[in-house]
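Budget justification aside, the reviewers requested a transparent look at the raw inputs and outputs of the sequence design task funded under Objective 1. We therefore reproduce one unedited record. The lines immediately below are the structure tokens for a 159-residue chain.
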């Protein structure tokens, strides 16, 4: 019976850090653009939320590339915008853990979106789920990109 007490004590201590992370307040990142901020406040969501060492980005939408435009270059603009949000949250493309993309026409958008994504996302690759949907909230949107990342780890010797 005395062997159970140390194990039980260790198990109790192991849950303390997890409980403190769960109790930690979340931080929110809102757009710097006043119109975008007003829109997000109207609908009650943040551009990103930081909880513990995890960063959750709201979906970022993109429309159909204009006629004659290179679709991969067009989608790359959206990935650049996501990179700015990640940086404002203390993260980077190297820290992305999971990508979820929603496509109104997955067969049309996926090849060019993949080419654009690969300009930013390098090995070791995050998880990625691509989902075909009927429509997105924004009527002109054809793709929505949602990201989960970790905070960029601090390097030794830096604070």
């Amino acid at each position: 019976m005395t062997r159970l007490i140390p194990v039980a004590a260790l198990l109790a201590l192991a849950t303390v850090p997890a409980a403190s992370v769960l109790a930690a307040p979340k931080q929110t990142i809102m757009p710097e653009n006043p119109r975008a901020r007003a829109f997000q406040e109207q609908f009650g969501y943040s551009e990103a939320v930081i909880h513990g060492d995890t960063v959750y980005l709201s979906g970022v939408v993109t429309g159909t590339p204009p006629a004659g435009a290179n679709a991969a270059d067009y989608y790359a603009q959206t990935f650049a915008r996501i990179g700015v949000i990640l940086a404002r949250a203390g993260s980077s493309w190297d820290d992305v853990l999971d990508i979820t993309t929603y496509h109104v026409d997955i067969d049309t958008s996926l090849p060019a979106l993949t080419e654009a994504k690969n300009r930013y996302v390098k090995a070791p690759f995050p998880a990625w789920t691509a989902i075909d949907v009927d429509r997105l909230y924004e009527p002109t949107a054809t793709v929505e990109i949602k990201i989960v990342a970790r905070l960029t780890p601090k390097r030794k010797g830096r604070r």
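Helices lie at 4-23, 34-43, 71-88, 106-120. The longest helix spans residues 4-23. Computational costs for records of this kind are itemized in the attached budget.
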